Every structure is written in structure tokens, then in C-alpha cells.
Amino acid sequence: MTDRTLPLEGKIALVTGGSRGLGREMVLAFAAAGADTVIVSRKIDSCEKLAAEVRETTGRRALPVACHVGDWDAQETLVERVYAEFGRIDILINNAGMSPLYDSLESVTEALFDKVFDVNLKGAFRLTTLVAPRMAEAGGGSIVNISSIVSERPTPGDLPYAAAKAGLNVITKGFAQEYGPAVRVNAIMAGPFLTDISKSWDMDVVTERFKALPLERAGNPDEIVGAALYLAGPGSTFTTGAIIPVDGGRTAMR
Question: Is the CATH code 3.40.50.720 the one for domain 12-246?
Fold first, then answer.
């Protein structure tokens, strides 16, 4: 029986985009809940730094891996390395994402468009198809896709990103059907969070805009943790194919 004080005791959690922002907070939370973690991003130095922090603060194992999740073939290498190290993956968090700025919709190049879809949608699709069947063979697991409120509330300034995240919502529901009952697949639809990307915001403007939300503010990165632990852990055993907003109440607004 799982120890309620360590609900993820003995689990292996892989988090893409895991070295900073929401990914970092989830890595730290999963380790504190008893899981060994695989920290994946393109920058190995950042992964290694967080892995050292995890080991020091929680005593859990942490494997840093450099991988560009938009690279279809590289993900097979990633999965094989994790299985060689740990023998399984119990929790997969498809968190890697990017939303580059552009001057206008007319200025969006094919290269930019493809890059956004590669990282936000194609990568999650590929990694899930590699991991979910092996999860099922081993008795089950949980996959959590980190989507965005813009998938339902797009603006001209984030349209490629919004379209990719809308696609992520769709594959979440499809994968839940394909890999159930052993594997649960859900998504967190994140609203505005004060992660690294917020450093480029005009805070005077966005702070005023956030006052229109029911909670009247953006989220702190660690406020993703509750939903992530719920979907990853034993408390959500009857939840699959769900897209859960963690957005300060944005989806409650007209």
C-alpha cells in the first residue's frame, strides 16, 4: 500500500522541459513525494544543476538528460536510456513547450511554425507512443500533458502555439482511449504563470489585465504542483481523458 506521506514512493517520473519553470516545480514536488526523477531539457547544465538539488534536498535519484523533444528520433534514445537506468517509467509529464514572439501573423515563417508544433505537439505525441505501451505492459502509469488556456482562448499573438496546444488537448483524449485501462492520460490547461517567459512581459500592463481574472493575478510556478501530483498519483485512479484548467479562473469567464 502506498504511504500517504510519500504518495509517489518507488515511482519513476520523467519530466520534459524539466529544468526550469513549471517543469522544475514538478520535478521537485515529485521527488519530495518519493519519486525518482528524469529531468529532460535541451540544456544539460541546467538539468544537472537541478538533479544535484534534488539529490541534496530529497535524497532521491535524479537523472539529467539532454534531449530536444522536437527531434522524433532522439526520443527513442531518451526512452532507452531511462529504461536502462531505471527499468521503467511510471509517470510521464509532457511539459516541454515554446511560444516565440513574432511581429505579425504574416511574418510567421514555415520554420517557426514547424518548430512550435514540433516541440509542443509532435514531441508529446512521439514520447507518449514510445512510453505508454511499455507502461501498460508493466501494469500501468500516468501521463500528464501540460496544455495552455490559449488552446481555448487564442489571440493573434500566440496562434501557432495555441493551435499546437489545442492539438495536445485532442491527443490527450485519444491516447486516454487507446491506452486505457492501464494507462491514464490527462492534461493540465495552464493559465498565466510567472515563469521565465514572464520576464519579457510588460508587468504594468499584464498585472492590470490579470485583475480581470477571478483570482486577480497570475500564478506562481509552484501552484501547478497540486494538480500535477493529483493526476500523477493514486488520488486520480478514476480520472482519464480530462483537461483540468489551472488558470486563475480564466475558463470560468465568458
Answer: yes
